[in-house]
Amino acid sequence: MVISSNQENSTEGIVLIVDDQPESIDIIKSALDSYFITKIATRGEVALKIAQSGNVDLILLDVMMPGMDGYAVCRKLKRNPVTQDIPIIFQTSKNSYEDEAIGLELGAVDFIRKPSSPMVILTRSRNTIAYHRAKKELHQKNNELKEKNRELQRLNPTVA
After folding, report:
1. What sign does the dihedral 117-123-126-132 (CA atoms) show?
2. What is the pTM of this model?
3. Is residue 33 within 8 Å of residue 13, measured between CB atoms?
4. d(CA 34, CA 15)
5. Domains and their CATH numbers in the chain
6. Which end of the chain has fewer CB atoms at under 10 Å, N or C?
7. Residue 141 CB: number of other CB atoms within 10 A?
8. φ, ψ for residue 2 (rounded to 5)?
9. Per-residue pLDDT tens over the stretch 51-60
10. pLDDT in tens, 88-112
11. Which of 81, 112, 85 lies closest to 99, judged by CA?
12. For residues 111 and 124, what is the distance between their CA atoms, to the nearest angstrom?
């Protein structure tokens, strides 16, 4: 199942919510809809297709789902060059530190336990996207500086 909300005031990015529980989806969606465009997948396979299509800024991923669980989805996302840089926040009702460690080792940037406050979900989503964008911009600026340095060295070989 795929649902997409496209509110005009949703300007902070696109969040893919991956969860098989309608109640969880409703809580997360209501927390984010005023700030983000949200896309929803109720199965891991669908989430992979949506993420692969591009323009996803963050994935909120449930760990326990029928079929492909969140850990398997995360592994596939992190192995794919198109999706490997999308930040993932795991959400789960599991509360062992081992489960959290597994998610973080797979490449997730955060772990939210359910049930969670809508404000926590919103704040962590906003912070994660802001950090990811700043990191991406810094990487781009560094590449631009490296290119300018190469150009300067080519124009003036005595400055090395």
Report:
1. negative
2. 0.86
3. no
4. 12
5. 2-155 (3.40.50.2300)
6. C
7. 10
8. -125, 130
9. 999 899 999 9
10. 999 988 878 898 999 999 999 999 9
11. 112
12. 10
